[in-house]
Design brief:
Layout: H1 2-30, E1 34-43, E2 46-55, E3 59-64, E4 71-75, E5 78-82, E6 87-91, H2 97-100, H3 103-112, E7 116-117, E8 122-129, E9 132-139, E10 145-151, E11 157-167
Antiparallel strand pairs: 1-2, 1-11, 2-3, 3-4, 4-5, 5-6, 7-8, 8-9, 9-10, 10-11
Helix pairs in contact: 1-3
Length: 182
């Protein structure tokens, strides 16, 4: 009888601990207006790094540590990837970043998803949006957003890991202006 009582109590505690962690993630994420960070990105085995600033909703500026001076910019509607020799322009809504940069949408998704403990202190939420599989990762101790992984319609895997995270900094809004072609 004691064993059965212990099992019932144990099983009733597990969901509340899990729900508490999810609520802490949501609360911390809601408080973010902008976030700046260093990143390491792995796209099908090709590793790039640099730093980014995200301003919610849907604005991002990333400067890559590459000799071709690659930058990625979204003004909330369009996404541009520019280097010394190339210029790519996309409607933001056609990319996985449209979802990743939409904090309110992510919060709604997280609220309705089950979290997964993926080891190494990470919590993961997984969903498919517009034919893109998206995994969002949070730190289990700090509840900070620490990265994402996407698989697009062409089966390209892109993993982005965030470090040196700073929240709610004063920003120069001009950085989100779409750069012109060379």
């Amino acid at each position: 009888m004691k064993k059965l009582l212990f099992i019932v109590i144990y099983l009733s505690i597990i969901p509340s601990v899990s729900a508490s962690m999810k609520q802490n993630i949501i609360k911390k994420f809601k408080d973010i207006k902008n976030i700046s960070f260093d990143f390491e990105q792995n796209i099908n085995g090709k590793i790039e790094n640099g730093n980014c600033i995200i301003e919610y909703p849907k604005k991002i500026y990333c400067k890559y540590n590459l000799s071709n001076q690659k930058i990625l910019v979204s003004n909330g509607k369009s996404l541009v990837i520019k280097t010394l020799s190339s210029y790519y322009f996309y409607p933001l809504e056609k990319t996985p970043l449209d979802t990743i940069l939409n904090k309110e949408y992510l919060i709604k998704k997280i609220t309705n998803l089950d979290q997964r403990d993926v080891g190494d202190g990470f919590i993961n939420f997984n969903f498919v949006e517009n034919e893109n599989e998206i995994n969002i990762f949070f730190d289990k101790k700090t509840y900070n957003l620490i990265g994402w992984q996407t698989v697009d319609i062409y089966q390209n895997i892109s993993i982005t890991y965030l470090s040196s995270i700073k929240k709610n900094q004063k920003l120069n809004k001009k950085i989100f202006k779409i750069p012109q072609r060379n």
